[in-house]
Amino acid sequence: MLQLNAAKHNYAISIIERSLIYAIVAVAMNLLTGFTGLFSLGQAGFMAIGAYTVAIFTIPVDVRPNVYYISGINEAIANIQLPFPVALILGGLLAAALAALIGIPVLRLKSDYLAIATLGISEIIRAVISAPQMDRITNGSYGLKNIPGFSTIFTPVIITVICIGIMILLINSSYGRAFKAIRENDVAAEAMGINLFKHKEMAFIISSFFTGIAGGLLAVYMRSIDAKTFQVTLTYNILLMVVIGGIGSVTGSIIGAFLVNCGQEWLRFFDEPLMIGSFQVPLFRTGFRMVIFSILLMVVVLFYRRGIMGTSEFSWDGLGRLFKRIPAAFSRKKAAKETGGDE
Predict the structure, then answer these.
(1) Radius of gyration of the chain from Cα atoms?
(2) Residue 281 β-bridge partners
(3) pLDDT tens digit string along 65-89?
(4) 99 and 49 Cβ atoms separated by less than 8 Å
């Protein structure tokens, strides 16, 4: 019984940790897409850079021969082991540096063309990581394992709070107002003296930095990674969180990250066979969970076409007004029925 309770407790902690990690990358994507108006689909690639950087430099030196057992490890990094915070920041900086380089040609594109270009870059990053020529650094297609995990759940909580807090401060600063002006009308923003390329490049770099941080956290969470972890579907999953929560809402991105991650886990019982007496319900089988999950997402989109939060942010005052509206709505409905009955 105690073992069962411990397993459930660890399972709940695992879901929370993963939701926190995706909350960072969802807010980072929203910073670029929702607040600056740049539609990028390169998140999986930048997460891969952060993840592999953290993995390479935090795997204990004495177990690396067991990880790089095919081609061995490059001598330049064989004995370098960094503390987790240093490796995490380094992963974010490398992702930001790459974003600065590719942003020069790519950010001159707009709309769908920018999305296609960044999607292609993400796939190029993944292909380079898994290339045989990178075996002695990234271990190629074999991936990396024996990555040290979180010592406590407070580690991802603290890092998530810091990262999202910094992005909120940025959004509310003069730079954030410039990002929003570009989103609304880049021609008018340029006429007001805003340097379009400078601010687009800045938003792209900052978003990529925090995406790299999230990738590093994901590597520590998973304890082992390979190139398949960072396929295009990962970016689509992040985009889903942003859209469900509300494009242009930090609070919405956080809510979307928790809803998507928790929803996918809580619906797992639909993947298990269901017996009623001697009759087996035919729909309950592997894969049915995602069918139910997709239906629920469609319902959310139908009722919240701009996402759960839209462009608004959570506030206690807003929550209080929401609760006040509920009895008022019932009162109006009751009054309408009584008026109709009198007639």
Answers:
(1) 23
(2) 274
(3) 888 888 888 888 888 899 999 999 9
(4) no
